[in-house]
Amino acid sequence: MEALFFWVFAIGMLLAGASVILNRNPVASALSLVVTMCFMAALFALLNAFFLAAIQILVYAGAVMVLFLFIIMLLDVKAEAKTRMRWISLVLGLVLAIFFSYELSLVLRDGVPMGAVPLAKLPPPPSDIATIGRLLFTKYLLPFEVVGVLLLVATIGVVLLSKRDNKPEAK
Amino acid sequence: MEITLNHYLAVSGLLFTLGLMGVILRRDLLVIYMSLEMMLNAANLTLVAFSRFNQHLDGQIMVFFTITVAAAEVAVGLALIVALYRVRQTTKVGDLTTLKF
Amino acid sequence: MASGWLLFAPLISALACLVWLRRKHDLAMFLSVGTCAISFAIAVALFVGAIPVPQPWNWISITGGVANLTVPIGWYVDNTTKMMLLVVTGVGLLVHIFSIGYMAHDEGRGRFFGELSLFMFSMLGIVVANNFVMMFIFWELVGVSSYLLIGFWFQKPAAAEAANKAFLCNRVGDFGFLMGILMYWSITGTVMFQLNAASASTLATQTSATLTTLGVLLFCGCVGKSAMVPLHVWLPDAMEGPTPVSALIHAATMVAAGVYMLVRIFPPVLSASVGAQEVIATVGGFTALFAALIATQQNDIKRILAYSTLSQLGYMVMAVGIAAPGAAMFHLTTHAFFKALLFLAAGSVIHALHEEQDIWNMGGLWKKIPITFATFALGTLALTGFPGFAGFFSKDEIILAAYEKFPCLYAIGLITAALTAFYMFRLVFVAFFGPARTEKAEHPHESPAVMTAPLVLLAILSVIGGWSILGIHSYIAGGHAAEGHQPGHSLTLGLSILAFAVGSLSAYFLYFNKKSDPIRISLFANKFYIDEIYLNGPVKFQQAIARILAWVDNWIVGGCLVRGTAFVSNLTGEALRLFQTGSLQAYAFLFSFGTILILYFTLLR
Predict the structure, then answer these.
(1) Which domains occur in chain B, in start order?
(2) Which of A48, A72, A120 shows the shortest C-beta gap to B52?
(3) Does the pTM of the predicted model rise above 0.90?
């Protein structure tokens, strides 16, 4: 049953991902990305990471992608023209992709630790939200607070960046 | 067929490759940005998979941080794109080649 | 501490004049003359023992390692020093006073007096120095002030070139001097003139070859500064400087510093090495004769005196070489009097004739400028060794010292004495007697009192300087002055009077009342072609090397190394520039490609 879910989610995610980069229309790309994120959340759930699955949906599919769509609408981005795909970047990109996949296969063939252990044979996971919360506020307290400061900085930065420079009229 | 860690890693790697292709092939900054998000997600999947197979929660904490940082990054990045658009009236990378000698 | 003002007073004057008072001529003049008077007063006080010598203090002290170097700033004062201080400050003061009149109309006299004070400071530093390093520093300082003063009228190309020539010739000598100092230090472990017992015995046990090398190297400094052959060429050219400078620096004091230095190092170094003494005596004697021969055919009044100075310096150096440093210092003292007098009187003549220096354009001056003529004549008599005058005693002392040791030098001394009388009387007869040969010579004007007063004082000193009542000689020689009982004394006395008579009479017959020079010896007139030899030998050689080095510098160092590296960097930059397309995706591609390559090489190979 789990294997079936895995294959469905994984293939669905990869197809949606391919659709992100193949669609000429940015809106379509963004919507495909939402689908990708959802499948990703489902995979997280398969791995018993329910908290992260929820976060994934909330933050990515909810907040980030809405932001993307909003910007696309705001800037009124047009679909890319058909003729403008340059063959040289296509070739180079494919070479890169093939080379990277080849490396990936080599790594997997050589084996990673516990790489061949089936998921079903594992003991039940330690994960629950309470444990993660406790870890966050004990062992990872400092990174957690640093991330908080980072978010604050990002907020201020965004405000500054999007403020129109209208000093001449201000006076 | 049993699902193993290798399967997850392979899926994650393929998604990462897709994102990389997107970064290199697409011409619109916004789409490139989406591809970047995809690459980040691929890395997240790897971390969660390792976390699960090692019976250890640290990987999930990392993913939590990654998502937070990615959210901040998207906010700042999109603000930059908007600011750029105001000046250059474009989001196509082909038109943004001032960074050369 | 009061005695320290001997050095500080001229130093302050030099700094003040050169920094602030270059345009305030009168102030600079008074300051310079005043500080010189202060120095003279302190020298007198030191002479009579009224004030003590300052305490030495350690300037450099490096200990540990293989060698120790301790350089104190301290004074070494004995009878020789005191006499030298009196001479330097006394003659210096008179020259300062003379300069007031001589330089009265010069635009740069603020600078002139500042440089003169700088010279006084440096020269007094040499005289009081108690170690080689301190002496060397002041040695170089007098070189600098000499350079500045020779080139005082730097707008004249001849003066600027003469200054360079003097400086370069001194460099050659000073290099040897420095090597000598280093050798002395490496042998004895100290740079002091006064050695303690251990160092003295170390020095005494050296091989004679080592000691000779040491002595000759130190003598190199004297060769440069006192203008011995073969580095004598700068001194005649130095006459391009103002005449008071020639009198003070290039006749009375600075050029005598070489002799003073030899006397200073005589007891520890030179007395131990017969070889070095022979070299010094030979060079000195040769210079004496050589310069006297050249002087017989010169026509410029200052150049005749310059060659005469060379010749007399040769006498002094020869005296050191024949182990008679007392006689050398005695002659140095009397020579300072009469040669300063001759130069100042020559300056007075030049001043009277409006910058005329060729003796064949003079004539009949004795009636028109009587004070100058009288003092010049007295100086000439003193220089040529007229019996009873200063030069008579001191020169005889040297010739007598040569009698026993080196008969050859004895003969050279006598011949030179005759030649000295010849060229000096030639100068007197041509310049002061006979008809006036040019319009200028018809109407000279006697110099003002501020110039003639120093002349008169120096003339008196030139006359009485050698008298034993004054006791200069016995004072310097520390009471061991040779009295009249040495072998060959009466013979020498007779021969030197004969030499004077021969020289002066032949000059009288050849030159009295003549319109032009009856004899022409181009070898002498052209100074044995030494300048030409130098120009065609060492100078050509150096220019060839310089050209080769310039080529190497231009093409190998500059072309390959400097411009080559710049060219390669530039080319690399031009090539790498092509990678900077400005295309975001090209960068992304290159970046990820590199990452993948690194992964490949680290993980999979």
Answers:
(1) 5-94 (1.10.287.3510)
(2) A48
(3) no
